[in-house]
Amino acid sequence: MSWKNYLSDRQATYLEDFRAFLSIPSVSAQPAHSQDVQRAAAWLAERFKRAGFLQAEVLPTAGHPVVLAEYCPYPDRPTVLFYGHYDVQPADNPERWNSPPFEPTIVDGRIVARGASDMKGQVMAFLLAAEALIATGALGLNLKALIEGEEEIGSPHLPEFIERNKERLRCDMIINGDSGQLSETTPLLSLGVRGICGLEFDLTGPSHDLHSGSWGGQVQNPLHAMAELVASLHKPDGSVAVKGFYDDVEPLSPELREWYKKIPWDEEEMKRKLGVPAFYGEAGYTPWERITGRPTLEVNGMWGGYTGPGGMTVIPSTAHAKITCRLVPHQDPDRIVALVKAHLEEHLPKGVRLEVRVKEAGAPAFRMRADHPVAQAAKEVLTELYGVPPVETMFGGSVPILSTLKKLLGHDPVSFGFGLEDELIHSPNEFFRLSSFEKGQRGYAMLLLQLAK
Amino acid sequence: MSWKNYLSDRQATYLEDFRAFLSIPSVSAQPAHSQDVQRAAAWLAERFKRAGFLQAEVLPTAGHPVVLAEYCPYPDRPTVLFYGHYDVQPADNPERWNSPPFEPTIVDGRIVARGASDMKGQVMAFLLAAEALIATGALGLNLKALIEGEEEIGSPHLPEFIERNKERLRCDMIINGDSGQLSETTPLLSLGVRGICGLEFDLTGPSHDLHSGSWGGQVQNPLHAMAELVASLHKPDGSVAVKGFYDDVEPLSPELREWYKKIPWDEEEMKRKLGVPAFYGEAGYTPWERITGRPTLEVNGMWGGYTGPGGMTVIPSTAHAKITCRLVPHQDPDRIVALVKAHLEEHLPKGVRLEVRVKEAGAPAFRMRADHPVAQAAKEVLTELYGVPPVETMFGGSVPILSTLKKLLGHDPVSFGFGLEDELIHSPNEFFRLSSFEKGQRGYAMLLLQLAK
């Protein structure tokens, strides 16, 4: 029997399996659900075994456990490692859900449940693809699946887990399933994401709020100092003014700039979509270069003083700001945070004190070559699956797991998943298309076969 | 009988009158108390009549009524108008009061009740002083008392009331009783306050919050624009950068600068009191000159983006700020607001839209000459009452009623009251010293006698 027939014969059963997986509220962020997280891990390991994996275990971490499944019967063939997660976002505000978040409901060809798109749907699709290939004897390589339970809380224990199990996780290629396509008709090949680091800081002037009539003019207003300090972080040309910020940034190569030009960008449509009167950014770069090829510094929050209705004539004691930077390859998150901190200290206006709090460790950027063999294989599969070649692009956001996997396991992870942008992940009524569930099974099978060639 | 004996014979009864007045919860801000406000006005008019005033009426406004009392038997003698208010601040949070706010309680020589210091205590002191002088035949001038019921909500209907009753309020001298002394042992002569005007504004970039990873670098961040715009409002020397802001400001005369030098200022003590690492203000001016002699522009609130715990990688759609300016003589509040608005428009960073909301009408500054005859009389009385001459100063805050009275009635109001800074006005457990109540009666009597000379 062909693997394709094997899959199509079993779609009704597979959908029941998917429902069962979605019914377990594996919310990693909420201690009340820690038993459910354990239960989901156990269910998944068991299902991997049923799929024909020779080993599938629930392995402990200092937090939620990792599911590690292995099918490695071929000592001389390459090994592919699949990364995914079985934990889900919280599903508070049940009144905003049209059906209970952990009672999967099918509406118009979509399965509605928390975690459907992010990412139990892709984990199941991969598992079922592997099952079909194993069952029909078509799989010509070794497989490992590393499915963690803490992605939605920032994967705090995953690096340590990988370090500790490095030998066992050894592989030749990595697929990241926590990913998606551009639309139902256009596939996507992501070749990179930016890194991230962040800090927050307070400026304190007087020890308590002062009356702005009695004291205005004689003490530094922390809000004025904040404005001055934040304004000092950028130059008039839109670039970041922090000394050393661009030190490790490689200029965009002519080849890369040519490549960027091919990414579609309709300025008027984007303006409408974002609702901005005009675009604005670092001078000398195109939109996609700015978003993915250049580092940025953004204030995500800034506040102080009276913010309620009406007026209150106060000079506040303190002002606050939160900053994150997005990084490109070779920029070290710790070094960038240190440079920003030094800038704040050096440009501190008179009359206020500065306190900086660095956020938990950042993540470096990830970028891979378009001619990487796994990327090329993914491209071929996507072209066949969708009938058109994938849009090759990079993203401005950050996926710390990519650089973590590369650093610890030595290979570029290729993102290959089937989520779509409109599937309300992290929101009420999250859903996954049944067509994507089925297409995902075929897609993963085709990719594994391609990689086995 | 001397007026002094008349007063001292009646202190027990007067304290009961004061208690009765304080027991009426005349909270102007709360509709639930509007009957109480009416009741306080009626009680007060009746008490003025009992004090010997020939007329005392409760006169309507579009809001709470005004009490107008008149004792004008001397066609050839001057007329003094006393300004005060009988409304009080709300007294919410009863659990923070040691005794019920409208059940006056005497503790350690202090009467604790909402409105005791601000300013039923001074209104009663003036009324009782007048009673004693009328009863003993000592008063050699005409008296008018204008006691409003909306001071704590910004006197919205008082200007219109004064306009409408200009003839009836005609006078030769004005005393403002809503005032205080420097301490129990040091009197104060206030010769001016700054004016005020304000506005608030929003900056809007994208029509909704954006992910700072996906879009950071390509759209203007309203928080960056806000920082840049707010920073543009001041020059490096601490002066206001708004074009035309100082156009109508008279340079400080050498005489005034000499006068300023006499106001006590202990820099180290003030630093400790305000808890600032250093003072900061417009270059070239002394502390008191900055606070009372020069105009300022202060941001009272500024906010946007994520302000909760942890991080959130957002580029907010909007950023907000509230601004007030303190004005010196000749600066017109409306013109200054228009100049600030023009500055914001002119310096608006790229990629954001501006919306400005002007607050309700501002107030011009008030300043009077130290050699004004009523000020001189007040100075003599205070010197006699306290045994030391008053500290002559101006204040940085704003008392809109002063410029309103001057503009509509044509005379400089002299502030002469007996509140002290520590009496918790506008806070739970407001109190008034019984010694101030008694000293106030004598003080007002002495001032009226001095003015009759």
Question: What's this, in brief?
Answer:
Chains A, B: It is an enzyme of class 3 (hydrolase). The structure is a homodimer of 453-residue chains. With 453 residues, chain A is an alpha+beta fold.
- Helical content band of chain A: 25-40%
Distance between termini of chain A?
Answer: 20 Å
Specify the CATH homologous superfamily of the largest domain in chain A: Zn peptidases
Rg result of chain A: 25 Å
Task: Figure out the total of helices of chain A.
Answer: 14
Unreliable stretches covering 5 or more consecutive residues of chain A: none
CATH architecture of the largest domain in chain A: 3-Layer(aba) Sandwich
Q: Can you tell me the CATH class of the largest domain in chain A?
A: Alpha Beta
What key attributes describe this structure?
homodimer; 453 residues; alpha+beta; Aminopeptidase; Alpha-Beta Plaits; 2 domains; six-stranded mixed beta sheet; four-stranded antiparallel beta sheet; 14 helices; 18 strands; succinyl-diaminopimelate desuccinylase activity (chains A, B); hydrolase (chains A, B); metal ion binding (chains A, B); EC 3.5.1.18 (chains A, B)
Structural commentary:
The structure is a homodimer of 453-residue chains. The first copy, chain A, is of the alpha+beta class and 453 residues long. Chain A contains 14 helices and 18 strands. Chain A folds into 2 domains: 279 residues, Aminopeptidase; 119 residues, Alpha-Beta Plaits, CATH 3.30.70.360. Helix content of chain A is 35%, strand content 21%. Chain A has a 6-stranded mixed β-sheet, with helices on both faces.
